[in-house]
Amino acid sequence: MLKKALIGAACLTAMTVAQAQAQQAYSDNKIKIGILTDLSGTYSDLAGKGTIIAAQMAIEDFGGKVNGVPVEIVSADHQNKADIASSIARKWYDTEQVDAIAELVTTAAAVAVREVSKEKGKIDLVSGAASTALTNAKCSPTGFHWTYDTAALANGTANAVVKNGGKSWYFLTADYAFGHDLQAQTERVVKANGGEIKGAVRHPFPNSDFSSFLLQAQSSGAQIIGLANAGADTINSIKQAKEFGITQGGQSLAGLLVFITDIHSLGLDTAQGMMMTTGYYWDMDDETRAWSKRWSAKMDGKMPSMVHAGTYSSVIHYLKGLAAAKTDDGMKVADQMRALPIKDASGFAKNGKIRADGRMVHDMYLAQVKKPAESKGPWDYYKITRTIPGDEAYQPLADSKCDLVKK
Amino acid sequence: MTHSPVSLAVQAPTVAASSKRQSLFVAVLLIVALAAPFAVYPVFLMKGLCFALFAAAFNLLLGYVGLLSFGHAMFFGWSAYITAHAAKEWGLTPELAILLGTLCAAGLGAVVGWLAIRRQGIYFAMITLALSQLMFFVALQAPFTHGEDGIQGVPRGHLFGLIDLNDTMNMYYFVLAIFLIGVFFLYRVVHSPFGQVLKAIRDNEPRAISLGYQVERYKLVAFVISAGLAGLAGSTKSLVFQLASLADVHWHASGEVVLMTLLGGVGTVLGPTAGAFLVVTIQNYFATAGSWVTIIQGIIFVICVLAFRAGIVGVFAPWLKKRGIDA
Amino acid sequence: MMTLFGIPTAALFGQLLLGLINGAFYAMLSLGLALIFGLLNIINFSHGAQYMMGAFVAWLALTYLGANYWVALVLAPVAVAAFGIVLERTMLSRLYKLDHLYGLLLTFGLALIIEGIFRQLYGISGMPYAVPKELAGGWNLGFMYLPIYRAWVVVASLVLCLGTWLLIEKTKLGAYLRAATENPALVQAFGINVPVMITLTYGFGVALAGIAGVLAAPIYSVNPLMGSNLIIVVFAVVVIGGMGSILGSVVTGFMLGMLEGLTKVIYPEAASTVIFMVMVVVLLIKPAGLFGKGA
């Protein structure tokens, strides 16, 4: 009896000690992940609320706790503004013990948060933003770029369009870092394939009336009008190009960054035949279908964009890093994240690996939008025409201007 | 404000007692300001101080000259850009970068003021608003401002090459010093003979003209001082947040500074500061709640205009005055 | 390709035509502002928000009541005017004895509230509003493909502006209005109910903004922020034209829209600033504005 009680007490003590150690390792006994995204604006469909849902799913799938310490989510709307994003990030890190910030659509906002995270030694997991700056000049030892980037988009879409005969290009570019970067990356690919650049016009972000920019594009006489913009801006440009008879006039539009949510808004009638590059499609295999249906059930039947799946994948990998590092120290968690294999229930990140510059390299897909007759129903939109291996899709590490890359 | 005959009639304390109480009042405020960062999030306090100086500069025009500028964000925002660029690209020390931003804002103020004082009242407001929108578009398109991205990662640097401003407390006391210098300067301007002429113009412009004052010149000088100090506030803010962005040049910022001044009390010394801290608190509290900030600011605007035109400090001022304290 | 002064004519005429369409909106909005200013002596800062409300009424009517574009074209101005009249009676009318700047501040606050509420409810990505099928399609003009709807906007706006001008210059009601603008006390003494006239004028002015909003919905899509940047351009238009004449504000609106279009061809970078630059020049040469009376 006494012996039993003693053993019991010893066990209890051992457990308490273990728990206390685990808890001490994580400051304030809590892991807090901030989801900073566009909840009301141009990008709220392709990112927005769906990314919060995805992050919650990641935490649930991980069991809600890391080594016994509970994981929480906070979220906020950065309205696509750098200053708002930066001040929320600072407040979260300084006063609310947030350990990592994820999602971060809009390059301007992502770069602003990257500056703060780097200064504080905290983890950021960029999913929605596209600019390669995040893994070049703005790279950070605790910063990750997860889902896609402008280099991968250009290497995918522009390559395919030029090879199909679209040799002369004119750009309609969203006037901020993302648009400029996407245009530059695309120009590089077009020129490398023997194509020609006729010019470009920059439009304000966000914008609603594209008529005068489209007229400029039309009078350039280029075969291809490259849309270096995203979200509602892309949707409006495509619709208005139709209204002004530009597509009937023989010029074609190339959406350089198109999400499945954009295709859903445009409808297959308008979008059919378009080529695009994506990091994820829900209807690829059993794994992606199963995960997407779970997400869909929480999102009124919508299907996830690559940003939604990417956010899930990045958050769950961060949790794995936390568990392995046994601490919430940003540097140590980042080291573990680089070392661990990337595999999760969403089926995102096939052959994924994290490089020294923070780029998560994984397979990308070249897709073509189905004709209305080919589609079996809502959200059945893509034919995956080619899998682009990660090393071909992304910027080679040797070309990275990131100072963390040893040359 | 100086003692008007009205307040003298209300059992004014003796001058000596009054100035003693006044000193005590100022001393208490100073101690609060010095101790505040140990109790409150310092970045929030610094934001408040920057906007308080901005509002105080704006108040010089609205409260003491009777000119409603609806474009003051252009001075605030542009000086932020200049300072950020100077500190980041040219590697200027913080004090020089701020000085440069302030001077540029004053220069811009001279041009804008020269144009705008040709008209009065509502026209003056609309012209300043339109000119600030012009400067907004310039900021949107000029390459060095980096459009929507803004100038990010601005180094705070070392003050006089010695004091490391990356330390939050050092930065706080630096911002507090700038705020105090700015407000003290404004206080001196308002209580100088020059300030008396400004008030005379506000109360009755034709009379001031007939007394032989060159009204236009006085207005212009006041405008330049106001623009320069708004610039000082913007420059400082860009170092605090290490960021200069379009939000600070946008007309929303011009509207906010009007709101801060109106809420705190137009034409009082402490009003703009009180208003600024209140508005910044609201912004802070609702920061993650999307457009609720805009709605609440709009409601406060409407209430202030319809029922609360004296503002917070304006309401308390007579009570304090009776006790020999000039707010 | 044909060119004129080294500019392809297709691009030139195309941009001028688009400028004319933008000018139609400037004209309708500055006309309403000028009417309100004439009688109430306030600058209606919420004019942009009321324009946005017009577009939203159209979108809401379509989405929830199934009311088509033509119904909305009547419904929206009535709804916006009713809302405006309530504002005028409950709030603005308390400020007439104060400095006119308070009217500006009040309407600014109202604009923030209205915009904030719509943003909170509908986000800022904008709701698409389809072109009515009667006006769908377009004409190939040789130099450009002109959507019929855009041509309709120019015609409708011209008719509205001309109608308003006739109402004010040629009818008895307009005569009262002009008299009340000059000397409200005297008109009141003649037994005309000036306060009611003020209320109705405010309602009419914002109704114009409401109609403009419906006309804009299929072009710019329905967005809570659609009025907020436009209104500042319209302020500049008003400063340039001067508040003196109804016709002045209309003519200035159309002219500046076309000037903007022209700038898009010659030097696109300056397109967003050209109107403000014109304002600076006008202030230097003729501070009272092109059509203004006195200083």
From TrEMBL, chain A:
Range of residues in the leader sequence: 1-20
InterPro entries with a match to the protein in the record: BCAA_transport, Leu-bd, Peripla_BP_I
Annotated GO biological process: amino acid transport
TM helices/strands, residue ranges: none
Keyword tags: Amino-acid transport, Signal, Transport
Domain Leucine-binding protein: 30-370
PANTHER family (UniProt xref): LEUCINE-SPECIFIC-BINDING PROTEIN (PTHR30483), PERIPLASMIC BINDING PROTEIN OF ABC TRANSPORTER FOR NATURAL AMINO ACIDS (PTHR30483:SF6)
Family: Belongs to the leucine-binding protein family.
Name of the protein in question: ABC transporter permease
Automatic annotation (TrEMBL), chain B:
Keywords noted in UniProt: Cell membrane, Membrane, Transmembrane, Transmembrane helix
Compartments, record wording: Cell membrane
Gene Ontology terms: cellular component: plasma membrane
InterPro entries attached to this UniProt entry: ABC_transp_permease (IPR001851), LivM-like (IPR043428)
Top-rank taxon: Bacteria
Taxonomic lineage: Bacteria, Pseudomonadati, Pseudomonadota, Alphaproteobacteria, Rhodospirillales
Coiled-coil residues: none
Name this protein carries in UniProt: ABC transporter permease
Residues of the signal peptide: none
Record has Nucleus as a keyword: no
An example molecular function term from Gene Ontology annotations: branched-chain amino acid transmembrane transporter activity
Keyword Transmembrane: yes
From TrEMBL, chain C:
InterPro entries named among the record's database cross-references: ABC_transp_permease, BCAA_transport_permease
Gene Ontology MF terms: transmembrane transporter activity
GO cellular component, one term: plasma membrane
Protein family (similarity comment): Belongs to the binding-protein-dependent transport system permease family. LivHM subfamily.
Transmembrane portions of the chain: 12-37, 71-89, 101-122, 142-168, 189-219, 231-259, 266-285
UniProt keyword list: Amino-acid transport, Cell membrane, Membrane, Transmembrane, Transmembrane helix, Transport
Broad class of the protein's primary localization: membrane
Localization terms from the record: Cell membrane
Bilayer topology term: Multi-pass membrane protein
GO BP annotation list: amino acid transport
Pfam families: BPD_transp_2
The protein, known as: ABC transporter permease
CDD domains in UniProt: TM_PBP1_LivH_like
Organism of origin: Magnetospirillum moscoviense
Domain of life: Bacteria
